[in-house]
Amino acid sequence: xxxxxxxxxxxxxxxxLGMMLPHSKAQLNATFxxxxxxxxxxxxxxxxxxxxxxxxxxxASLIRLHFHDCFVNGCDASILLDNSSSILxxxxxxxxxNSIRGFGVVDxxxxxxENSCPGVVSCxxxxxxxxxxxxxxSGGPSWSVLxxxxxSLTANQAGANTAIPSPFEGLNNITAKFSAVGLNxxxxxxxxxxxxxxxxxxxxxxxxLYNFSNTGNPDPTLNTTYLTTLQQICPQNGSGTALANLxxxxxxxxxxNYFTNLQNNQGLLQSDQELFSTPGAATITxxxxxxxxxxxxxxxxxxxxxxxxNISPLTGSSGEIRSDCxxxxxx
Length: 331
Ligand code: HEM
Ligand SMILES: *[C@@H]1O[C@H](CO)[C@@H](O)[C@H](O)[C@H]1NC(C)=O
Ligand SMILES: *[C@@H]1O[C@H](CO)[C@@H](O)[C@H](O)[C@H]1NC(C)=O
Ligand SMILES: *[C@@H]1O[C@H](CO)[C@@H](O)[C@H](O)[C@H]1NC(C)=O
Ligand SMILES: *[C@@H]1O[C@H](CO)[C@@H](O)[C@H](O)[C@H]1NC(C)=O
Ligand SMILES: *[C@@H]1O[C@H](CO)[C@@H](O)[C@H](O)[C@H]1NC(C)=O
Ligand SMILES: *[C@@H]1O[C@H](CO)[C@@H](O)[C@H](O)[C@H]1NC(C)=O
Ligand SMILES: *[C@@H]1O[C@H](CO)[C@@H](O)[C@H](O)[C@H]1NC(C)=O
Ligand SMILES: *[C@@H]1O[C@H](CO)[C@@H](O)[C@H](O)[C@H]1NC(C)=O
Ligand SMILES: *[C@@H]1O[C@H](CO)[C@@H](O)[C@H](O)[C@H]1NC(C)=O
Description:
The protein has 331 residues and is mainly alpha-helical. The chain has two domains: 7-165, Peroxidase, domain 1; 190-299, Peroxidase, domain 2, CATH 1.10.420.10. It is 44% helix and 2% strand. The protein has 13 helices and two strands. The protein has helices spanning 5-20, 40-54, 58-70, 103-116, 123-136, 157-163, 171-180, 185-192, 224-233, 257-263, 270-277, 284-292, 294-309; strands at 199-201, 243-245. A two-stranded antiparallel sheet has the order 1-2. The longest helix is centred in the N-terminal third of the chain and has 16 residues, at 5-20. The termini are far apart. Bound molecules: protoporphyrin IX containing FE and 2-acetamido-2-deoxy-beta-D-glucopyranose (9 copies). Residues 26, 29, 31-32, 148 line the site of one 2-acetamido-2-deoxy-beta-D-glucopyranose. One 2-acetamido-2-deoxy-beta-D-glucopyranose is lined by residues 83, 88-89, 92, 157.
């Protein structure tokens, strides 16, 4: 039975009207490069796999690059731009300087991708793909990465100083910074689970070890056995650049031990332990869920990585596809 002529007329009119409206915000999707670079995921994952051979920490460093990119002007590879006459690089913002790493591997990935599909794949998408490869190759979940981001023409060093959470600020402030980019408490706890691998320098947590908040004592939410270990790694008056594993139990594996650690007062950063030790906090039930059920953690983590990867991407004809991730084309 065909619908009355008037209905089909209106249907056609509505579809035509829809096609005429500007598509200001194209959605990312998993098949963006299906015709133009069908093998991009395996190209990225092969380079990441190669990098793991000589650097067991590289996966952690790569996912952190994606996080620090997305929180500043959205996931637009702004973090990859070097200083130039018109760029104040985000690499020198406080949360990044002498800390963020993995740029050489990103360049190797870009070179490999350009060799197969020149001028097609954005640096912002490379960061998202490298983050997924890093997690899945470390024992964590795999997922279909949404693609179609384009690269920025600018960087925002001041934004990097204010938008990226600090390990010294309270849970309320950190929650506010996640909320400012559209991420909720579930996302905050799930994404913090990325501290299941990688390292942190003593300077990011040594305030907890000797004279916490001028009390003359260590942070009371720090497990005393763990405290002794950390004091050995980070002597008083040390340089602050020695490294500790973010997850003291399974340092390079992507698993849910991060959450069990928090229950045992073995969160390394103050911002980690606060998720479990802040009285009455909404984060606690998520920590308990993820600690008792790795499947729940992985499921939540994947969704939250997709949410983070969707922060204000440049799409359509905004921005560009950089040919060198470190600089704007033609500069
Ligand atoms: C919730 C607020 C967060 C704070 C305050 C925070 C803070 C930090 C700090 C201070 C370090 C150590 C840096 C150094 O010592 O050089 C670190 C490392 C790391 N962060 Fe976070 N982070 C947060 C959230 C996240 C998120 C959302 C992710 C990813 C989804 C992430 C992934 C990592 C990884 C993997 C490392 C280790 C990097 C490496 O070994 O190179 N962090 N984070
Ligand atoms: C993916 O997004 C691109 C750009 O918006 C679009 O051209 C393409 O049709 C989309 N693919 C699917 C399967 O939605
Ligand atoms: C794409 O990847 C598949 C599986 O990794 C491989 O068999 C194929 O040869 C690759 N194709 C190209 C064009 O690189
Ligand atoms: C880049 O600029 C920062 C200031 O934003 C400066 O501290 C740094 O030394 C410069 N780095 C290079 C390699 O030019
Ligand atoms: C939390 O945010 C407030 C308001 O922005 C700021 O004044 C305060 O210094 C922050 N607290 C910490 C510990 O960073
Ligand atoms: C802790 O720090 C405060 C402020 O700097 C200082 O007055 C106090 O003497 C310190 N306590 C110890 C035990 O070092
Ligand atoms: C650290 O340095 C301060 C002064 O700079 C000194 O009073 C203190 O004894 C030193 N502590 C250690 C353990 O060396
Ligand atoms: C300290 O950590 C150990 C595991 O290393 C755990 O058995 C113990 O319960 C923890 N203590 C506290 C107070 O959380
Ligand atoms: C663990 O979480 C998964 C995913 O949310 C859920 O399907 C499963 O029932 C949970 N298992 C237990 C024992 O609660
Ligand atoms: C645990 O987390 C999973 C994944 O987000 C969710 O489906 C489930 O409802 C949660 N369970 C509890 C008891 O909160």
